[in-house]
Amino acid sequence: MRQKHSDYMHWAKTQSKARFNLATSGVGSFPLRDLPYDGTKLEINGDNSYGYVPLKRAIAERAGVDPDCVVTAAGTSFANYLAMAALLDPGDEVLIEHPAYGLLVDAARYIGAEVKRPAAKKTATRWKRKKCGG
After folding, report:
1. What is the mean pLDDT of residues 23-35?
2. For residue 70, which of 56, 88, 83, 81 has the smallest C-alpha distance?
3. String of DSSP letters for 42-109
4. Who wins on pLDDT, 2 or 20?
């Protein structure tokens, strides 16, 4: 089933009341006018239609490839999607362990892959929680 909406991401962005929400994948907005710096002289991204050119050039130089062969992503979730889109075709079977990050499953389904969810095996590891602070 192809879906264009992630129930998990909608919940993570709209329902969490956590002070430090580690479930969201974006950076909160911050007006540049609030910086103690002349914003007209600060360039933080520029033309980004096919990736930030200075970043693509640096990656290409390090990898020894043409910058046109470099693809960047604005975040991990989009990078996961790009990798799956390059490797999977509609109808391909993909195994994604359960539990797993919800957007992995959503991305594979969006591409049209048939997602199988084997349960993770229990291990002997027992993590102990410790109180932090006072």
Report:
1. 70
2. 56
3. --S----BTB-HHHHHHHHHHHTS-GGG----SSHHHHHHHHHHHH--TT-EEE--BS--HHHHHHHH
4. 20
CB 95 within 8 A of CB 84: no
10 Å Cβ neighbour count for 57? 13
Q: Is 64 left (phi over 0), alpha (psi -120 to 50) or beta?
A: left
- Give me the half-sphere count of Cα atoms (radius 13 Å) on the Cβ side of residue 125: 5
Longest dimension (CA), the chain: 57
Backbone angles phi, psi at 93, to 5 degrees: -90, 130
- Two structure tokens written together for 130: 């410790």
Q: What does the DSSP 8-state code read for residue 20?
A: S
More confident residue, 126 or 85: 85
Q: Which of 66, 100, 99, 98 is nearest to 80 (CA)?
A: 100
Question: Looking at this protein, which amino acid is placed at residue 113?
Answer: A
Look-up: residue for tokens 């993570």?
Answer: 12
Q: What is the pLDDT of residues 91-130, one digit of tens each?
A: 999 999 988 888 899 999 999 999 999 987 777 677 776 7
